[in-house]
Amino acid sequence: MAERSTKKSWVLIVEDDVYINKAYAAKFAHESIDVKFAMDGEEAIKTLRSSDSMPALVLLDLMLPKKNGFEVLKDIKSDPRSKSVSVIVLTNLGQETDAKKGVELGAAEYLVKADTKIDEIVKKVKGYLER
Asked: What DSSP line would sit under 84-122, residue for residue?
């Protein structure tokens, strides 16, 4: 089968909770949205650096092994190849200071997992993919 000349948009999900990833995988597959997963901050950066194309969006948890989400966000925004990628921070850190820091580092949005239904996340992701 021949390669298509247009690359399909995809989403990088950086989340260390296996159960949350299973829920995302099922929901995004149902919506025909291509996703890749990274279970820690280092894997996220490695995935971005080794990809032929940048994702349309990164869903980024903050409490991650090896490299936390704030460090990953700094890396994404300081790399010329990935700095224009939209990042939605999706975390359980609900402090205003954390949200402020996330936005200052370049996050497009800051969402608290406990306050955000998966359907809302999918709707937001679709909005970014349509841009």
From this structure: TSEEEEEES---HHHHHHHHHTT-SEEEEGGG--HHHHH
